[in-house]
Amino acid sequence: MQRINTLTKLYLEKKMSRKKKFLLEALLIEQYAAEGKSIAKYQDKIIFVEGAIPGDVVDVWVYKNKKDYAQGIAQKFHCYAHDRIDAFCKHFGVCGGCKWQMLSYEKQLSYKEKQVQDQLQRIGRIYPQTVWPILDADSTTWYRNKLEFTASALQYLSKEDLQAGLPFKKNVIGFHAPKLFDKVIDVETCYLQQDPSNEIKNFIRAFAIEHQFTFYHIKEHKGLLRNIMIRVSSQKEVLVNIQFGEADMENITLLLDALKDTFTIHSLYYTINTKLNDSLYDQDVILYAGKPTIDEYLEDLVFEISPKSFFQTNTKQAEKLYQVVKKVADIKPNETLYDMYCGTGSIGIFLAKNAKKVIGIESVPDAIEDAKKNAFRNQLSNLQFYAGDVLKICNSDFFALHGHADVMIIDPPRAGCHEKFLEKIIDVLPNRIVYVSCNPATQARDMLLLSKHYDTIISQAVDMFPHTHHIENVLLLHTK
Questions:
Q1: What pTM, to 2 d.p., does this model score?
Q2: Is there a contact between 186 and 173 (Cβ–Cβ < 8 Å)?
Q3: On the chain, which terminus has fewer CB atoms closer than 10 Å, C or N?
């Protein structure tokens, strides 16, 4: 028996060393890693596994095999972890939107909190002086203020659906299947956005089928109904923009009139998009009915939201996040605040009443125009916004003109900050930095450079997206 086990072990080790793709059977998932992946081990090799949680025993299909680690996906479950619960959405496991519904919310928070500190320590070698407990979400469903649905002539069905004999639907509205650009999961009820989101989506699907509209075929690049974007504010104001792949104004008008007569939609837009992707920012968005914008509130501040607006998609958690930023920044009436990657200026506007002056910088011109409008709407005169690349704008002359940065807010995209920008920060040496990140891994990477000149005082994780692996983290830095 020992001889057989030894031969099996040698065979698997040889298999792992040579093959790029293979199956490992009955692995115990030992711990959570990050980005929704967990860790199993075979011999001394770490296997990063998608679709499983600590405590599961699974067969793992290894699709990437490196010298020191491998990556795989759970194929067959032999035993489920005790922490698993029943998912509430029938699309769970197929739709990639809410991958953690099988975990209690308390367990989700625990993993996210661990992820942040593990990455700060492992990647950035950072040990904050104080780690505040993660801020949870008051609502774990119906929390998004914006959703985009895709209309498609190509439906995605899982292997289980196909084995059960479910027929393909010709025209569907929902979300792209994970890692598939051309197939869409037909979604009846999505638990991410409050009504009338689902009612509007389902009405459009039924109306389009009844009136024999063509749905967009992404491979052939043709079809009328293409994309639906719905915003529902905390004040229950509704904005809808429908993208059409063809300029069939007769049917476009027919659908828009039906929506206008059936629902209370405060801003109804349409876009004729004949290019290859669904990106809205280079398109003409046409107001069909209602007012140009809807209002969203953070505390007593109002923000005008248009179809192209950049705005945090979880309003209530954004308010908590900005309250954390305000608290740790501790800006004084005689201090100047620089808001880098400012988007529509929401953080700078949120803190403006406490500052002498706020300078916001953002690369997208439309976002800067929104920022100026929102500052004016809130009767704030101490903000200045500039459109352009932070690397090009933030030179010595710029800081000489606007004054020393007492506090600098950094809120970059997931890729984090460019190294040259970090070097510029070190050149001007703000007294305090508040680094807001939607990707703790790149935040930790950036801290490798910043920590040479700054102490990390506070770390605060904020959960913006329940049932996903995404987490926001705020760091307060003081000059050494």
A1: 0.89
A2: yes
A3: N
